[in-house]
Amino acid sequence: MFEDMLRATSQRHRILAGLLAGGLSLGAFAQAALADEDEIPFDEAEIFFELNNTDGDLGIHALIDGEAWKKLRIEDPREREILNVRVKGRLKKQGLTEIFFESAEPPFESDDPEEVTLTPEEFFERFPAGTYEVSGLTLDGEELESETEVTHLMPAPPEGITLNQVPVDLADVDCDDVDTIPVVPAGAVTIGWDPVTESHPGEGFPRPIMDVEIHNYQVVVEVETPAEQGVASSVELPPGQTSTEIPAAFIALDDDGQIKYEILAREESFNQTAVESCFLVQ
């Protein structure tokens, strides 16, 4: 029970401290501890970071799912509230069960002096590692609460990219300059990459470089249809699979000949690092 009390929320710490200062009896102390057991955990409460290594930016994401609620709060490890959502009006009667958000992603640096920038050091200071508390209130007034561990450990970007087993240096590809874009023959295209095994080596990321366990990879491919509508295909792959084939039928949907793709490496904490590029089909 003592371990359970150590895991109590900051709010309950304050309540229990006040009660103890006022001479709380052992029986009342136990009742206060048991109150935590009445809180309903969320089915899912994930808070994680996404790095776009190609563009050079970081963002914070969250996915929260559970029983219908009318209030939702998130506190960081320093007990600072970073999100407070209250459902109102007719939607309050209906309640929400799932919410996903992703923050803005200011670039690490910019040639425009008026553009807001945010270096990795500044980002990680803004969102410290540690235990984040997600709490809420159900439509019936019951308390919802879960805790999730957030880490600054980011996977290294996928490297060793190949298109139909032909190596591609992403640093040489500019999707706005057709002369730099690799060309593949019409038909199915296999995208491959080397396994990601270490944390990000870049400046401003945690040191020392550490081994990472990849939870899964994700490949997103986007084509532009004749109706000028972008159509995307996404596939999630197990950590041992480092290539995937894009079917010829999907490639054939494209109208302008340029196919954009993104490869994400997702670590066990759900932190993920992405690289983006493109190729031409002829």
Q: What are the defining features of this structure?
A:
4-stranded antiparallel β-sheet, globular
Task: Characterise the protein shown here.
This protein is α+β, with helices and mostly antiparallel strands. The protein contains 6 helices and 15 strands. 16% of the residues lie in helices and 39% in strands. 22% of the residues are buried.
Give the helices and strands, then pairings.
Layout: H1 2-6, H2 10-21, H3 26-37, E1 44-52, E2 57-75, E3 81-86, H4 89-94, E4 96-102, H5 120-126, E5 130-138, E6 143-150, E7 162-163, E8 166-167, E9 183-184, E10 189-192, E11 214-224, E12 230-237, E13 243-246, H6 248-251, E14 258-267, E15 272-281
Parallel strand pairs: 1-15, 9-15
Antiparallel strand pairs: 1-2, 2-3, 2-4, 2-5, 5-6, 7-8, 7-10, 10-13, 11-12, 11-14, 14-15
